[in-house]
Amino acid sequence: MHARSTVLLLLALSFLFGCAGSKPIDRKASAETKALYRNLGKLAKKHTLFGHQHATEYGHGWSGQRNRSDVKSVTGSHPAVVGVDFSGFSGRSAEEIQIAKEAVRQNVVDTYNRGGVTTAAWHFSNPVAKGGFYWVDSLSLPAVSYLIPGGAAHEQYKEILQGIGDWAHTVKGADGKLAPVIFRPFHEFDGGWFWWGKPYTSREDFISLWQFTVSYLRDSLQVHNFLYAFSPDNRFSSEAEFLERYPGDKWVDMVGMDNYGDMGRDRFALDTAAFKLKIVADYAQKAKKLAAFTETGLESIPDPTWWTKTLLPTMRKYPMRLSYVLVWRNDSRSPTHYYAPFPGQVSVPDFLKFYQDPYTLFENDLKNIYHRKRFLGIF
């Protein structure tokens, strides 16, 4: 661990005075949000932050234990990026929504106080039909056309966004500042499993929904602690296909990709996965955006060397600036649904090698990521 710290310090000093060369799309973004954006860009020159969905909410065989994560149990550090979800912010009773909001608020504040980073997905329950966030042929309606300006449920959608906006103003850390959140709505939109997926909405309506969502939160509700991440699944093989439903550079802070299929779920196609990541990273550089591997993983991690023989080579095949990589959750009750190791899991030795690699950063490696002048990046 001492050698790791020394190497990381030398690497940090080598690009301490670099800059990302870009700013968030929100001109009124909080100082902490601007600093996070800039510092993620700086760190991505030589490192990638490791993230885990729902890491501190629950894990393999446990839930609701403050300051615990399976990643910490294995490495001694929480992941640098903790994923949460706004799924409970609508489609439930008022009491259930309030409970969900408070739980996520506390999680975000705790992560901020420790110096970690939060990203929020949105498994948005269909507001105009049954079926939840998935598309169910017998139940679902193509809700995007209902939610955009002029749609039959537009006012209802504004109320849902009001709930998110109100929540965003409550995530104050111990320093009295609002915790920044990387908000990733309508992810994997190029597939057909969610009601906002490509088969159920036009390109124009999807872009309209994205732009309205950002504008209403930022400009009408005065939410200035969000960064906005655009992340399709892996169903593209060119920049043009990746950008087919892109809402425009004025509406996106981060571009990413979710890819399980090429990483072992359907096949091991590492060259393909790396090439797709390169498309994302190259566009980010050109458009002065951040880039990330927004979701990936191998359920149950049966391959004991997946971390250093699959994930790490995929991210490092090309010179790419990736702010973070996030693997999916560890279910608390399922014996097989997990994507990060826990004590005794077969990939633990390899994960420790992944953790010790200077390229990867975990929460304990971060320092002052929400400050510009005092930022050192890593220990």
UniProtKB/TrEMBL annotation:
Any one GO CC term of the record: extracellular region
Family, similarity comment: Belongs to the glycosyl hydrolase 26 family.
UniProt cross-references to Gene3D superfamilies, sorted A to Z: Glycosidases
Active site: E188, E295
Organism of this sequence: Rufibacter glacialis
Example of a GO MF term: mannan endo-1,4-beta-mannosidase activity
GO BP annotation list: substituted mannan metabolic process
The protein's name in its UniProt record: Mannan endo-1,4-beta-mannosidase
Organism lineage: Bacteria, Pseudomonadati, Bacteroidota, Cytophagia, Cytophagales
Annotated catalysed reactions: Random hydrolysis of (1->4)-beta-D-mannosidic linkages in mannans, galactomannans and glucomannans
